[in-house]
Design a protein that fits this description.
Aminopeptidase; alpha+beta; 12-stranded mixed β-sheet; 37% strand; globular; 12 strands
């Protein structure tokens, strides 16, 4: 197996589109908005790419994306080759079990197992728009950041980790207000006109107002379907209520992966 850094967008996209529904976020990273701040790596078997992963440096904590089946030997070998050159701290989304290749040099803080889901039945999005609906924009970034930090989650829930100030520039964000304050939000992490994909993100509802997020998510997905062909999202495998909500809107599970934070151990 030959491992190497790659900048051939056509070849990378061809590999990702072998399972496009599982790679919505990586496909979006081929867009000009993200491409300059990405580094892509591949393993070749013969004349074909056998594995592809990327490091995205646009986020406040660099992201390693290496989603593949656990038994994917090519991806395991690629991660072993890449391991010495990874950032000292990185947030990783990995196929189940692939962290073993990185735990040799990194301390691992697991965030658990997640599902990737894709919108397969857009007819289910036809639900009434919620009262108090408002389109959110870049000027709402401070308010959104405060909402995720203060209001959106119970103490035991991990929240707000992936809101970045550039995200409202990418595509539609919506909120529901009560008495002037946000109680529910739905937006996007990635949108790409180039690859016609969008990744839903930042969906959260204040704990005492939960149950309203379904209609808000439907509004968001209808807006996205006017722009792109494929809409996907990530959700914690343990979040049964959210999974049921997404299934009711026409989303279906396409694969599972793990999220974790990695920090390189000091050399002795």
């Amino acid at each position: 197996m030959q491992a190497f850094e790659i900048r051939d967008r056509v070849a990378i996209e061809r590999w990702l589109r072998r399972d496009a529904r599982a790679h919505v976020y990586a496909l979006a990273d081929l867009d000009d908005v993200f491409w300059p701040e990405t580094r892509w790596f591949a393993a070749r078997s013969g004349d074909d790419l056998a594995a592809v992963c990327l490091v995205l440096e646009k986020l406040s904590l660099p992201l390693l994306y290496a989603v593949s089946p656990a038994a994917d030997t090519a991806m395991r070998n690629l991660l072993a080759w890449l391991r010495p050159s990874l950032p000292e701290r990185v947030f990783a989304t990995l196929g189940i079990g692939l962290e073993a290749e990185l735990a040799l040099e990194f301390e691992v803080v697991s965030h658990g197992e997640y599902l990737k889901m894709a919108l397969e039945d857009a007819r289910r999005l036809d639900v009434p728009a919620p009262a108090g609906l408002e389109r959110l924009h870049v000027e709402h970034c401070d308010e959104l950041r405060a909402f995720y930090a203060r209001d959106a989650y119970l103490p035991e829930e991990r929240g707000g980790r992936f809101f970045e100030s550039y995200m409202p520039e990418l595509g539609p964000w919506f909120g529901i207000r009560e008495a002037g304050r946000l109680v529910s939000v739905a937006g996007v992490h990635v949108v790409s006109a180039r690859t016609s994909v969008a990744g839903v993100g930042g969906i959260a509802t204040r704990p005492d107002r939960r149950g309203r997020g379904l209609a808000l998510t439907a509004v968001l997905c209808r807006a996205l379907r006017e722009q792109v062909e494929l809409v996907g999202l990530n959700v914690a495998a343990a979040n049964a209520s959210a999974i049921r909500c997404y299934e009711s809107l026409g989303f279906r599970e396409v694969c599972r992966y793990e999220e974790m934070e990695l920090e390189r151990r000091p050399k002795r």
